[in-house]
Amino acid sequence: MTASDPRALAAAFTEAYRRAPEGVWRAPGRVNVIGEHTDYNDGFVLPFALPQGVSVAAARRDDGVLEVRSLQAADTVVTVPVDPHAPEARRWRDTAPQRERWAAYPAGTAWVLREHVTSAPIGGASLLIDADLLQGAGLSSSAALECATALALCELYGAADLLAPAGRRELARLAQRAEHEYVGMPCGIMDQSASLLCTAGHALMLDCRSGLSTQVPLPLEDSGLRLLVVDTRMHHELVDGDYGRRRAECERAAELLGVAALRDVKDLPAALKALNDPVLRRRVQHVVTENHRVEAAVGLLRAGATAELGAMLTASHLSLRDQFEISWPGADVAVEEAQRAGARGGRMVGGGFGGSAIVLTPADRVDRVSEAIRAAYERRGWEEPRFLTAVAADGARRLL
Ligand code: GAF
């Protein structure tokens, strides 16, 4: 069964809970074309939604409990009060065993909605989850899980204002808040926005300060190009501190430079001169130039110069490797080998230290490029990488 088969998920729900679900909702994972570690610096990002994602079958319950099950963790049933102040809710969050930690995303989402949605009181629900995203590949399965849960709960409990196009920005902020307050990951707003706001065939140019966004056509197929996702099979938990350290370094640099966020640095040479710490100088260099690259990439896409995006992706990768220092060997090798085999360019995507890289390649070189990467991994004795041709799909929605 695939997650895009809502009827099969509804049938599995009926079997698990001995009642039919009231609906099935789905939220996608994402690939970010460019604009990495710019979101929490109030900058620009350019993600698009994948066809792969997370589906949630759900039904209300009147005992104030959220019960979460997943087809990918058949032996786990998590039950927590929706009220985050209930002692049982706090106990679960503080003591849940590792194999149940994934349930903090739907639980945290329910808790935040319960706390902050004033238009409708969010109550209990039974959820059955199914995901068809590559696990641990850095394609934002956690944001997809939060967003699918958020859509389901808002619709079940009548929070219609958050479901309207104008409300989805706020919903993204609430999902992000769940990740900050309950999961402990100080993420930016990109992943939740991508999952909730993207449209098929487009990337989302998001100004993370104003929240304003525009849909930018991403005509990969028409340009004879493919965006290949390379799951490097090297994984890293972002909750463990490296991501938070980078964020703190950026905030420290902004403070020393006397700006609200690194987005406000207008004179890069002067800013670099003003900072004594070489680490902070490298972080600033990345964020400022990456914001410029996002704007330039949007210009290229609008001008129909899609192939030229490749050089921009590679420049982003080198900056993430050398200035932000969050790349990893699997991504570096994938980008180098892809270019040698005729790709236009490529880069690591997401938070860093593991996950996936993307490679922009002419359609007729996809096999050659993937084979070159596979062979390079084999020579090094690394686990075989997985490949996915990325397609820009629609954002979160109700399926049934
Ligand atoms: C992770 C975070 F969740 C995003 O907010 C973003 O900062 C990204 O890393 C890096 O661009 O996916």
Radius of gyration: 21 Å
The secondary structure category is alpha+beta
CATH architecture of the largest domain: 2-Layer Sandwich
Q: What gap, in angstroms, lies between the N and C termini? A: 16 Å
Which consecutive residue ranges, at least 5 long each, have pLDDT under 50? Answer: none
Encode the helix/strand succession as letters: HEEEEEHHEHHHHEEEHHHHHEEHEE
Helical proportion?
40-55%
Count of extended strands: 13
Any idea of the CATH topology of the largest domain? Answer: Ribosomal Protein S5, domain 2
In total, the number of domains comes to 2
Return the CATH class of the largest domain: Alpha Beta
Protein name: Galactokinase
Domain GHMP kinase C-terminal: 300-378
EC number: 2.7.1.6
Keywords: ATP-binding, Carbohydrate metabolism, Galactose metabolism, Kinase, Nucleotide-binding, Transferase
What would your notes on this structure say?
- It contains 13 helices and 13 strands.
- The chain is globular and about 60 Å long.
- The protein folds into 2 domains: 6-217, Ribosomal Protein S5, domain 2; 221-390, GHMP kinase, C-terminal domain (Alpha-Beta Plaits, 2-Layer Sandwich), CATH 3.30.70.
- The longest helix has 25 residues, at 278-302.
- It has 400 residues and is an alpha+beta fold.
- It has helices spanning 6-17, 87-95, 104-116, 141-156, 160-163, 168-183, 190-197, 242-257, 268-274, 278-302, 309-322, 329-340, 366-379; strands at residues 23-32, 44-45, 47-61, 65-70, 73-81, 124-131, 202-207, 213-217, 225-234, 345-348, 355-362, 386-390, 397-398.
- It has a 6-stranded mixed β-sheet with strand order 5-4-6-3-1-13, sandwiched between helices. The chain has a 4-stranded antiparallel β-sheet with strand order 10-11-9-12.
- β10 and β11 (355-362) form a beta hairpin.
- The site of 2-deoxy-2-fluoro-alpha-D-galactopyranose has 10 residues, from α7.
- Residues 36-37, 39-40, 187-188, 190-191, 350-351 line the site of 2-deoxy-2-fluoro-alpha-D-galactopyranose.
- Keywords: ATP-binding, Carbohydrate metabolism, Galactose metabolism, Kinase, Nucleotide-binding, Transferase.
- Its EC number is 2.7.1.6.
- Residues 105-197 form the GHMP kinase N-terminal domain.
- Belongs to the GHMP kinase family. GalK subfamily.
- It holds the Pfam family GHMP_kinases_N.
